[in-house]
Task: inverse folding
C-alpha cells in the first residue's frame, strides 16, 4: 500500500556520553546538510523527550522505550526521504541495534560514536549533572551511576577530545560522501 | 537550520468513534494516494500505540498525550513531504486543535470527521468493545462512558451510515483534489 520510498533518506545516529558533544556536532552536520538543500530533521534526545516521552525517566526500561520511539520515528522519516540526525545518549547496544533495524528496513543507518572520556565530560559538565552524579545525587546517570555500552561496530568514531566540533562534523560529512549519501 | 520543506506534504486526520470506519476509509484513501505515486504514511491509533505510547491508558490525560505524540510525528512527516494519514478516535477538540497547529506550521491539515451514531457503531462492534462498555465493564470508552467532542469545523464530514467505505474514500480524494493536494 505504501509506495517505494524516496531514495535519499537515511539516519545518522549520534551516541555518546552526556557532554561528549553529540548535540554540538549533530547541529553542525545538520546545518551543512541543510545548506546543500537536503531536507533534515534533528531528533535530539533532550528535545524529543518533551514530545515523545514525557513522563519517562532514566531507568534502563524507560531509556529503552525512549530510544525505541526515537528509532521508530527516525525510520519513518528516513523512509520519507529525510536525512534524520539523531543525538541521544542511547547507552545500550541492544536499543541501538533495534533502532538500526527499524531504519534499515527502508534506508541506511549510520551509527556515530561521539567519544570523550568520563573525566573529560565531567570537566566540561555543561549542565552541571556530572557534579551531582559524582556527589551521589543522581541515580542512573550514564557513565557514573549507569553503564554506557560502547558501540561495537559504529560506522564512525569521533574523538572530541582530539578534534574540534567543526573537524568532527567534517568527518561525518566526509563519511556520508564516501557512502554516496552526500555530495 | 532546516531548509524549506518539500511542498507536497500534508496531514489528513480521521477522527470518530470506535467502529465508525476510520481505519477502513483511511486505508482506502492511503491506497489511492499510493497508487498515484504519493509517499504515504499511515498512523493508525491502535498501531501507533505499540510504537509511541506503550503504557498509556485511556484516561483523558493519557489520550491527550497519545494524540500529542501522533500530532507531533505527523507534523514532522508532513514537513518532510509525506502525505500523512492519521486514524485515531481523538475525542477531544483541544487535542485535535493542537495536532492541527503542529502540522499547520509547515503544511496543510485536513480534519475528516468519520461519523456514525453510537447505536450503529455498537451494532457493528468489530472488536466487541461496545458490548463490554455497555455492560459497564469498560471505563473511559468513547461514546459510552467517555465523551466524544464532535469536530466544530472539520474540513470534511463523512457519513458512514449513508455511504459505503469506497464512496467515503472517494469524497476524501475529491476534497484533496479540490484543495490542490491531489490530481
Result:
Amino acid at each position: 500500500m505504501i509506495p517505494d520510498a524516496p531514495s535519499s533518506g537515511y539516519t545518522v545516529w549520534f551516541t555518546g556520553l552526556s557532554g561528549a558533544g553529540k548535540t554540538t556536532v549533530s547541529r553542525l552536520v545538520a546545518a551543512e546538510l541543510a545548506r546543500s538543500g537536503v531536507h533534515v530533521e534533528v531528533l535530539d534526545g533532550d528535545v524529543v523527550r518533551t514530545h515523545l516521552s514525557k513522563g519517562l525517566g532514566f531507568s534502563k526500561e524507560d531509556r529503552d522505550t525512549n530510544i525505541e520511539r526515537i528509532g521508530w520515528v527516525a525510520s519513518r522519516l528516513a523512509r520519507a526521504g529525510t536525512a534524520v540526525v539523531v543525538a541521544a545518549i542511547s547507552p545500550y547496544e541492544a536499543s541501538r541495534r533495534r533502532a538500526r533495524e527499524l531504519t534499515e528496513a527502508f534506508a541506511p543507518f549510520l551509527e556515530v560514536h561521539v567519544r570523550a572520556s568520563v573525566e573529560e565530560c565531567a570537566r566540561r559538565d555543561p549542565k552541571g549533572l556530572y557534579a551531582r552524579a559524582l556527589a551521589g545525587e543522581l541515580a542512573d546517570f550514564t557513565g557514573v551511576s549507569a553503564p554506557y555500552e560502547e558501540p561495537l561496530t559504529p560506522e564512525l568514531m569521533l574523538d572530541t577530545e582530539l578534534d574540534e566540533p567543526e573537524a568532527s562534523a567534517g568527518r561525518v560529512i566526509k563519511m556520508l560522501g564516501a557512502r554516496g549519501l552526500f555530495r
